[in-house]
Specification:
alpha/beta, Rossmann fold, 2 domains, 4-stranded antiparallel β-sheet, 9 helices, 31% helix, elongated, nucleotide-binding, AAA+_ATPase, ABC_transporter-like_ATP-bd, ATP-binding cassette domain-containing protein
Length: 305
């Protein structure tokens, strides 16, 4: 389904990024609506960080186009203020105190919300006098998240910010992320290789493998349009039109496959069971690994080329 551009958070057309001879992202086409928490998943080296850096305006495309809120990323100061970015290592300045970070945020961001910043610092138990270099990994992540959110952006971008955190710290970080998104009325993109994190907080999914978007869409819609089919071994060769095999397998007498369908899977040979998000993601990753030259991009309800 195509969206009016005014309703889009991010739009890319044939977006590619090359570093020397290596393609980090190729032929990427996306139309993502506003008001979502988007999970960006894929193996290491798939192009996730490249896509996020393009969305922030930190790097430029080799070819194709990308728009955030209908304009090129970081088009001007006002547009730059709409985006808050927390990089993978949740960067803070080791020699500065928590208070120093808040003062710097206030100087650099015209829409800085000092009340929000101080309230959140109190809620996560940070002292304004503590130096960032003496904070735990979870505390540094909370400080970086607070600084990004207190600029009151319309989009928060997170590049695997919780990857190095212990389970308790990661849970607290994700809880605060969802609270910030709700309070600000913002959208968010969360890159993570932890599918449990994505499943917990995201309502929109992008699977990126082999520098290409493999599937993208509303999580609920993706789960409805995919299923696990168990059928006689030759049945996968005679499936009705409109059913795409994502990842096949067999257990001897029967074939099993994760499939995508344009219509309900009511009239197919065998039995169909629901798939969980993790199985859906892993099926697309496995297909990409076995067919690295595949160019099709499957979205919820359509195939883009």
């Amino acid at each position: 389904m195509l969206h009016d551009d005014s309703s889009l958070l991010l739009k890319t057309e044939r977006l590619s990024k090359r570093y020397g001879r290596r393609l980090a992202l190729t032929d990427c086409g996306l139309e993502i609506p506003r008001g979502r928490i988007i999970g960006l998943v894929g193996p290491n080296g798939a192009g996730k960080s490249t896509l996020l850096q393009l969305a922030c305006g930190l790097i430029s495309p080799t070819s194709g186009t990308i728009e955030v809120f209908g304009a090129p990323p970081a088009a001007d100061a006002a547009h730059l203020a709409k985006v808050g970015f927390v990089a993978q290592d949740t960067p803070v300045y080791a020699g500065l105190t928590v208070a120093d970070h808040l003062r710097m945020g206030a100087r650099l961001n015209p829409r800085w919300d000092a009340g929000l910043a101080h309230r959140r610092i109190d809620q996560v138990g940070l002292s304004l006098r503590q130096r960032a270099g003496r904070l735990s990994g979870g505390q540094r992540a909370q400080l970086a998240l607070t600084v990004a959110a207190a600029k009151r952006p319309e989009l928060l971008i997170f590049d695997e910010p919780a990857a190095a955190l212990d389970p308790l710290a990661r849970s607290g970080f994700l809880q605060n992320l969802t609270e910030f998104v709700a309070e600000l009325g913002a959208s968010a993109v969360l890159s993570s290789h932890l599918l449990s994190d994505v499943e917990r907080v995201c309502d929109y999914l992008i699977v990126l493998c082999d520098a290409r978007v493999q599937v993208a869409g509303d999580v609920d819609e993706l789960l409805v349009t995919h299923g696990r089919l168990a059928a006689p071994r030759d049945a996968l060769d005679r499936l009705p039109a409109g059913i795409e095999i994502i990842h096949p397998g067999n257990d001897g007498r029967h074939s099993r496959a994760v499939v995508r369908a344009d219509a309900p899977l009511d009239h197919v040979p065998g039995t169909v069971e629901k798939v969980e998000l993790e199985e859906l993601v892993l099926s697309y990753m496995a297909r990409a690994a076995s067919e690295p030259t595949a160019r099709a991009v499957t979205t919820a309800g359509e195939v883009l080329r």
